[in-house]
Design a protein that fits this description.
The complex is a heterodimer. By secondary structure, chain A is of the alpha/beta class. Chain A is 41% helix and 14% strand. In chain A, helix 2 runs parallel beside helix 3. Chain B is α+β, with helices and mostly antiparallel strands. Chain B has ten helices and seven strands. Chain B has a five-stranded mixed β-sheet. A two-stranded antiparallel sheet of chain B has the order 1-3. In chain B, helix 1 runs antiparallel to helix 6, helix 3 packs antiparallel against helix 4 and helix 6 packs across helix 8. Chain B is elongated and about 120 Å long. Classes of the chains: A alpha/beta, B alpha+beta. At the A-B interface, helix 1 of A face helix 6 and helix 7 of B.
Chain lengths: 160, 375
């Protein structure tokens, strides 16, 4: 495992508590492998999130744009769970594009090949890296940790 | 490289050592006869020019022809000994009648001597060449296997990647089932997914194992389309790491060639890997196979089974083109390439009585064409 989740929340605290005031956290899951997307989505739904799916990097960008503009004037997505290797844009490409357009959505990057370059890139983008195969429990933990970290950062005003 | 394989450099002398001149390699006992006859014809011309009776020449051709007919050394030695003994007698005998007869016998002995020496020499050289070829064969096969392992190393990185996702699907489904909250129908769906993903992994692994096996060199008719698809499947993961796509196009009908499948797969893997590595920033590799019909120099139609691998990468500098099939020639960085891939591919294709051609333009990409005999 590349990233140790920061497990410093109370045990009683349900993951859904880290959602926005409007309701459960909204997660966008992107992987070109349908079977893997299915298990991840199932688990996140069980965890109480509102889950959306994307098949490719371009799909993510489209969905994020749509969400931010008209259809969902709320907050858009709270978390992005994306695979690194997808046809067309890679996960890193997507994250770089998002950061370049000042979209600071927290993300979790999945990869089956966490080489040194990828690890360094993920670290510089401050994105946790999950190396496949990972357990769904770990994914849940990392998701909560990532959302909590963002919530805390927003609360202290550290994030623009 | 696997433990126990000799380092590549230690094999270099075996492979680069020039063999005996080709003419010696082609000699054997069968053509010892024509060779000695040529020598005799030369001797006859010498006799004719120096004014010796033509009858002498014809007579000393006789035992040689006889010896050649039997090809037996014992018979040849017996004839030669008789001639030598009669020659010795003639030195002491004297007398005009004997002199003429013994002179003929003497000449015959000389001719037999030439014949037998040539047979003996050719036998020795032939044995030597065979031994050299055997040693070289072993060295070449070790070298090919070592390079194959090198390719597998690269493939394994991609395959590990390829296994990560199905493995994750399996563990994920197991976790979902373990939660105990799934309906009967969902448990069934999860089990089915686990089975299909396990099958997918098995297939990936068996492809890799098959590639790694020390393949035989026996030739049999194989459909190049299948070889191409199998090899491409193994390399696709490593290609997509650098944003490359391998596009395969094959004709609807079989492209059968007489090949040792594992060897041709190795050639293909080398060419595809080179193509991918020529495009570090991504691009498209086009791989195809087809039957090619051309007219040879005499206007007869000949057919080849063709494999083409084309990239849109950096291309090969014109100055390097004549050297790219040389062993240990590489432009890749230290530790990135052995410089053996193309030379080994060239050797394999040549062994198949095929050809391997390259055309390249710097900055535009390269195209490799393998032509193999049709089955």
């Amino acid at each position: 495992m590349t990233t140790e989740p920061n497990l410093d929340w109370d045990d009683e605290e349900a993951p859904t508590d880290v959602g926005t005031d409007a309701g459960p956290a909204r997660v966008l899951v992107a992987d070109d492998d349908e079977a893997l997307r299915f298990v991840i989505v199932s688990r996140l739904l069980d965890d109480g999130y509102e889950v959306f799916e994307a098949e490719s990097g371009a799909d993510i960008l489209t969905k994020l744009d749509v969400m931010r503009q008209d259809d969902f004037p709320s907050e858009g997505f709270d978390l992005l769970v994306l695979d690194h290797r997808m046809p067309g844009l890679t996960g890193l490409d997507v994250l770089r594009t998002l950061r370049a357009s000042r979209c600071e959505i927290p993300a979790i990057l999945m990869t089956a090949f966490p080489d040194a370059t990828l690890q360094a890139e993920a670290r510089s983008l401050e994105v946790p890296l999950l190396s496949k195969p990972f357990s769904l429990a770990t994914l849940s933990d990392v998701a909560v940790a990532t959302l909590l970290a963002r919530a805390r950062a927003t609360a202290t005003g550290a994030t623009p | 490289m696997a433990h126990g394989e000799p380092p590549l450099e230690s094999l270099l002398p075996e492979v680069k050592e020039p063999l005996l001149p080709a003419v010696v390699a082609r000699l054997d006992r069968r053509n010892a006869v024509p060779v000695s006859l040529v020598l005799l014809v030369a001797a006859s011309i010498g006799d004719f020019l120096s004014g010796v009776d033509i009858m002498f020449t014809l007579l000393y051709l006789f035992p040689v022809a006889l010896g050649a007919w039997f090809r037996g050394r014992r018979f040849g030695f017996a004839l030669a000994s008789m001639a030598i003994v009669s020659g010795v007698f003639s030195s002491y005998g004297g007398g005009a009648a004997h002199v003429r007869l013994l002179a003929i016998a003497w000449n015959q002995a000389g001719a037999l001597g030439v014949f037998l020496s040539v047979v003996w020499l050719v036998d020795r050289l032939h044995a030597f060449v065979e031994e050299e070829q055997r040693k070289r064969g072993i060295a070449v096969s070790q070298l090919r296997h070592a390079e194959r392992l090198n390719v597998i190393g690269t493939m394994a990185a991609g395959v590990a990647h390829e296994l990560g996702t199905p493995l994750n699907v399996i563990t994920g489904n197991a976790e979902l089932m373990d939660s105990g909250q799934l309906t009967r129908e969902k448990v069934h769906r999860s089990s089915q997914t686990i089975l299909t993903q396990a099958a997918r992994m098995t297939e990936i692994i068996s492809h890799l194992l098959e590639f790694g096996r020390r393949g035989g060199t026996a030739r049999e008719p194989r459909d190049l389309r299948l070889l191409l698809q199998k090899t491409t499947a193994l390399l696709q993961p490593i290609a997509s790491r650098t944003g490359c796509t391998i596009v395969v196009s094959t004709p609807p009908t079989e492209v059968n060639a007489l090949v040792a499948a594992s060897e041709i797969e190795q050639v293909l893997a080398n060419l595809l890997l080179n193509a991918v590595q020529a495009m570090p920033d991504g691009g498209t590799v086009r791989a195809s196979c087809e039957l090619e019909h051309t007219l040879d120099a005499r206007g007869r139609e000949t057919s080849f089974a063709c494999l083409v691998v084309e990239d849109e990468g950096s291309g090969i500098r014109a100055a390097y083109l004549p050297r790219i099939f040389d062993p240990f020639f590489t432009t890749k960085g230290v530790g990135k390439g052995t410089g053996l891939g193309l030379s080994i591919s060239y050797g394999i294709v040549e062994d198949h009585q095929g050809t391997l051609h390259v055309s390249s333009e710097e900055g535009r990409g390269s195209k490799f064409v393998v032509r193999l005999p049709v089955a």
